[in-house]
Specification:
homodimer, Creatine Amidinohydrolase, 4-stranded mixed sheet, 6-stranded mixed sheet, Creatine Amidinohydrolase, Chain A, domain 1, 24% strand, alpha+beta
Chain lengths: 355, 355
């Protein structure tokens, strides 16, 4: 049995786990399936080879260490599952398992009890192994390079969309596969909307320019934000805002190490911004976990009291969104280490005038 | 209460329905939400104003005829729901409701019984009202126009991707919003793979050219396939294949009217191809229902024995995928009428040499 499956089973409260999320399955057996509306499931339990329930519409090469159980559209799903699942077991199902499957399984009593079994997978995924850390480093390295190229594309009257449309090509040329999320490009007042999507807004002299972008590399995500000034440096208030955000980012990153509470990392950044008088303009959590998905289980927020563990990877992205002064966010990804953290983004935090 | 909600409740076996699929909610109250991992739900029951459970992160204008119940990330979902759901009721939940919500609801016993309540919605959606029919007609009209433009773009050595990349612009120029699905463009032997995605294959003299494309118009989907010949007409076997597919399409369309079994429509087309000796090369169902989504509940297949109803809309898309001769598919959308059907695609079925 592979190490990841072993780690998940160690954390699991259920007797057996039926994993149905294609991304969790990819994590566990390194194969991606796109089952659409068809059932897909990986059954894992101690001392038994994992079984992959796979519709014949999605043929697969053999998978090392995994038995494939073929399903067809005319099979009764619960009949097949009950040949492999102990009807007296407590079965952990995926948090995303759809009701149309779960209700049938419950009706046919294929297990004694059904529980949400995802936490064991989510917590295992939150601790990256060596291979994953390497891929995350490379993905962020590409993102750093892309940021350096992106800022050279701006000029008077170019639109946010015209910039965003060039980013996929940049990632491809650097070895990335695609976006890890839809890129945000925001000029001027748009930067004060933390969820702004690129539109036809044209760049003007003196605008703030915010890029929140990320790619995937061999399936692993990057995610970084930088805020620039177009042709003209910040005025006094803007400089104050920028430096507060920068200090919030860097104080939080300096605070991180194994065994601190995630909520306290959030507080470290939030205190900086609150003490600076801009607390009400920092309207979101400080960060989110990331890996195969841009947003994975785990928050850097006041509500998340878990302790960091070595090899957690998450974002640190304080922001101030003051419509009168400016919108600003500075975001890096970090890997938690025993006595600190490794910041994956090397693109500097300094105030930078571009164009 | 609006007509669509009324129709769903008439068909429902449950006492109350908790709709959580954002597309079903859009269908019922004409608002689109993108809740991500947050809970979204619309509770409908007889003689009570619908309640929309909506996270405060997704602020909404008031919605006529609907009460909005705000949720925040710190609320206990089941506490809120149980204020509105009768604990002695049989609650219909969406087939796509995630286990993490359903298991909590069951644990807290917010209802006496939980069933899959989606069929009532799916069957209501399968019968289009006047407004929907108009939008579907317009969407297919744009698709007809796009097909006529698309075929003029081909030339020696252009790649499938280069053609596909131009299609979004064509739809936009014609008033469409976007793709209803990723377009398929297949040259030569690629046409014999019914799921081929556009790649760097270059067009050559004598190739078959297959376009399977669709757009959305005001949220409603089109979907059509035509197969052309590049610069050189079909040889004798290709002509035979093409004419069989055409006859399968037209015989099926002529057979359609209110009250026939969907499996018999499939059989009408399949018989033509089987009698022509190509049965083993027609490897998929004849069609699928369509509307707000490209694939909606309802199949035109041997397994689907339901009767057609007036104002059903589905695709008729026979194909022959013979790697030795050619791949060919001819697909239209149709609206069932009392005594026949209205074919939404006016683009002709004739053999056409392009380029």
């Amino acid at each position: 049995m592979n190490k990841r499956i072993e780690n998940v089973l160690k954390r699991s409260e259920a007797d057996e786990l039926l994993v149905s999320d294609p991304i969790a399955i990819y994590y566990l057996i390194n194969r991606r399936f796109y089952p659409g509306e068809r059932f897909l499931g990986l059954l894992i339990k101690k001392d038994i080879r994992p079984k992959l329930f796979l519709n014949v519409l999605f043929p697969s090469e053999p998978i090392e260490g995994v038995d494939i159980v073929s399903l067809s559209d005319t099979d009764v799903l619960t009949d097949v599952l009950s040949q492999y699942i102990d009807k007296d077991s407590c079965l952990g199902v995926d948090k995303t398992l759809q009701a149309r499957f779960l209700l049938l399984m419950q009706e046919e009593k294929i297990a004694r009890r059904f529980i949400n079994g995802s936490l064991a997978i989510d917590k295992t995924r939150a601790i990256k192994d060596e291979e994953e850390k390497q891929l995350m480093r490379k993905s962020s390295q590409i993102n750093d390079q892309a940021m350096a190229i992106l800022k050279t594309l701006i000029k008077d009257d170019i639109t946010e969309k015209q910039i965003a449309d060039q980013l996929l090509g940049i990632y491809n040329s650097l070895g990335g596969e695609g976006f890890s999320f839809e890129p945000s490009v925001a000029f001027g007042k748009n930067a004060a909307d933390p969820h702004h999507m690129p539109d036809d807004t044209k760049l003007k002299y003196g605008d703030v320019v915010l890029f929140d972008v990320g790619c995937t590399y061999k399936g692993y995500c990057s995610d970084m934000t930088r805020t620039f000034f177009y042709k003209k440096g910040p005025d006094k208030l803007q400089e104050e805002v920028y430096n507060l955000v920068r200090k919030a980012n860097e104080d939080a990153e300096n605070f991180i190490k194994k065994g601190v509470r995630l909520c306290d990392i959030d507080k470290t950044a939030r205190d900086v911004i609150e003490n600076g008088g801009y607390g009400k303009y920092f309207t979101h959590r400080l960060g989110h976990f990331i890996g195969i998905e841009d947003h994975e289980y785990g928050d850097v927020s006041s509500a998340f009291k878990d302790l960091t563990e070595t090899d957690n990877i998450f974002s640190i992205e304080p922001g101030i969104y003051d419509p009168e002064t400016m919108g600003c966010r500075i975001e890096d990804l970090v890997i938690v280490t025993d006595d600190g953290c490794e910041v994956l983004n090397k693109y500097p935090h300094d105030i930078e005038i571009i164009g």
